[in-house]
Design goal:
Strand content: 25-35%
CATH class: Alpha Beta
GO cellular component, one term: plasma membrane
Family: Belongs to the ABC transporter superfamily.
Number of domains: 1
CATH topology: Rossmann fold
Protein name: Branched-chain amino acid ABC transporter ATP-binding protein
Largest sheet: 6 strands, mixed
Shape: globular
Helix content: 25-40%
Keywords: ATP-binding, Nucleotide-binding, Transport
GO molecular function, one term: ATP hydrolysis activity
């Protein structure tokens, strides 16, 4: 579904991504690990069009994403959450979801049905008429995820979905993320410092270090990789 080939991103004289490659099969979850500054969020920003890659290729389902704006990338089927959720604070929860369904040719009844399904899924339906600013930080992350999912994406980019979320909401997020590939038919690229959740959810894991791929494999392979252990814990 997603292929990144020799992706390079430079900011002046600094190289944030130094030729990163990865593949993400259809209906699977790839965990992306790495210390702060390793290039994880830069990778997401290049995929969804916030940054323009210096060189390399990014394709989604065979379609190149290089040079496309964020809204064009969204139209190709890429949804994105952020470490600090970006919801429309002065709009209701229902209105937040309806934004993602604009220009989809749906009737008001269809928009209401899809929105209700996902607000129920993230356990926020009872607050559907509340302003988004009234939600807790964790609830705003759930709303942001629901806003992505109503658009039936091919690829979902999750940037630190568990950061600052209480344990109860984190368990709900884990359950939803685990079900997404089969329920919606999407692939998920999961960036998180919550190693336990990444190990539990991911079909495969890629570890980045200083803008390059350090290791890739199953949770068992990554946990026992000496290069990964040294990068996280020191020699």
């Amino acid at each position: 579904m997603l292929k990144v080939d020799q992706l390079v991103k430079k900011f002046g004289g600094m190289t944030a991504l130094g030729g990163v490659s990865l593949t993400l099969p259809d209906q699977s979850i790839l965990g992306l690990l790495g210390m702060n500054g390793s290039g994880k969020t830069t990778m997401l920003n290049c995929i969804n069009g916030l940054y323009e890659a210096t060189s390399g290729e990014i394709t989604l389902d065979g379609v190149s994403l290089i040079g496309k704006s964020p809204h064009a990338v969204f139209s190709e089927g890429v949804g994105r959450t952020f470490q600090v959720p970006r919801v429309f604070h002065q709009m209701s929860l229902l209105e937040n979801l309806s934004v993602a369904l604009l220009n989809k040719g749906l009737s008001n009844a269809e928009v209401a049905e899809i929105s209700a399904h996902w607000l129920n899924k993230v356990e926020l339906y009872r607050l559907r008429h509340n302003y988004a600013e009234e939600l807790s930080g964790g609830q705003q992350k759930l709303l942001e995820l629901a806003r992505i999912m109503v658009a039936n994406p091919k690829l979902v980019l999750l940037d630190e979905p568990f950061a600052g979320v209480n344990p109860g909401l984190a368990l709900l997020l884990i359950r939803i993320i685990r079900e997404m590939p089969k329920e919606v038919g999407c692939s998920v690229l999961l960036v998180s410092h919550d190693l336990t959740s990444v190990y539990e959810l991911s079909d495969n894991i890629l570890v980045m270090h200083e803008g390059k791929v350090l290791a890739e494999g199953s949770a068992e392979v990554i946990q026992s990789n000496p290069d990964v252990i040294e990068a996280y814990l020191g020699a």
